[in-house]
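It is worth pausing here to work through a concrete case rather than discussing structure prediction in the abstract. The textbook approach is simple: state the sequence, then state the predicted structure, then interpret. We follow exactly that order.
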Amino acid sequence: MTTPVTVGFDGSPEADAAVDWAAQEAVHRERPLRIVYAWEWQPYRLTLMDARTERHWVRHVPHQAASALAGRYPRLEVTAEVLGGAPVPTLLSESNGSELLVLGSRALSAWHGFVIGSVAQSIVAHSTGPVALVRASTEVSEAAAAAESGPAPEPAEREVVLGVDLDNPSDDLMSFSFATAARRAAPLHVVHGWKALAPVLPDTAHLGHEHKEHLAHKEEERLSEALRPWADTYPDVTVREDSHAGSTADHLVNCSRDAQLLLVGRRAPGLHLGARIGHVTHAAMHHSAAPVIVVPHNE
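Step two, the predicted structure:
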């Protein structure tokens, strides 16, 4: 059975954008698309619809979205289903059988970033598979609208950006990222951040610049060494190595402005710890201008 790209849907503008983006991603990956609406009646919620009316609306909108996609992507297999249950456990269950789970997020402003709701936050923190976060934007809608006869290809010069932590390397993240760039025929911009520790003794202050240059060269070599086997495995992927002194989170967010996609990892905690999202991944989720895919991996 072919694993699908699954998208969580609730009829909101951000969910519409997520569905459009998920359809294009399913085409890139040559996978079917599954639209899932997780719904349960909440009698004490303030709403203008009674349970029967809301249930009818819920059953209608995901199938309407699937029908609209079928006209734009005639070769894409699209299915839609309403599942009873709370969104977080329902979508987490769906992610287990999916190649990728796609969710929407809402833009605030260039300064304040995006609203990542409690549902998306919990799913990213607990999912055992990759989760994509797509914001509602004019750019995504225009790309989908322009694809009436098929998917609109991403401009080749727009990079896929990958953030790596060389102190906690992940084969899962590397493999996913190189394969994603290869499918999109896109350059892969790999970012590794590091911090230079200043000399602590007064009489060694003049060595600061030399010390930083030495560290920079060492970190560049570490990055090249980590990427070498993956570059050999994916020779058609153009790799741009970026060993950056300073904040990894800030640099990744800056790089995302001209990227088609940002990829980051999330370490799965040990049994003695609860689920968590690191500060770099958290910053990417809330401030990236491009869609973000979070790939979980072991400690």
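Step three, interpretation. The chain has a mean pLDDT of 82. Residues 73 and 150 are 5 Å apart (CA to CA).
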